[in-house]
Target: ArsR family transcriptional regulator
Amino acid sequence: MKVLHHPDRADIQLSSVLYALSDPIRLYLVSELYKAGERACGEFEVPVVKSTVSHHARTLREAGVVNVRIHGTMRFLSIRIDDLEARFPGLLMSVLQAYDSSGEPAFPS
Amino acid sequence: MKVLHHPDRADIQLSSVLYALSDPIRLYLVSELYKAGERACGEFEVPVVKSTVSHHARTLREAGVVNVRIHGTMRFLSIRIDDLEARFPGLLMSVLQAYDSSGEPAFPS
Model:
């Protein structure tokens, strides 16, 4: 079975987390995951092709922001809340609050 | 006199701010500016050439993170704390706290 690499908690870097969150679509994915808990990669209603979602999921995973669980042909994403909270207390919450209040469009028209 | 463009408060985008903060050297510059208030571009003790500092300063300015004031041949940087705080309350503080506690090296050896 294919095993995806996830950085250990201690290896999660602030700059990498901020970079992973610096894209409107990735911010949207993380915001949706925060509400939903866990979601399949194909479940997000985004106007981009599946491979683009996969690419964003990989960026988030490699930065330590999300966990990706493989089940059959599907990939399930969830936020590594405990790890992020232990590493950078309050950071994820303040980014999500900023996102909610910013009105920033995830999908520029 | 050359006037540098700074985005209006309302036009500061979360994804751009996070991107501007997603680089170890830019995080270091912002952290130093937060302690110092205002500093000249050439004052930072960073192991990169002046043009690289200028480039980072530009990224931070264009994202709305810093104000750049030109005085003679010098450029003075300061964080747009009031604008960032009004736009994304608590965000800058949580990033700076995460930076302080992360022990992330600004200058990887």
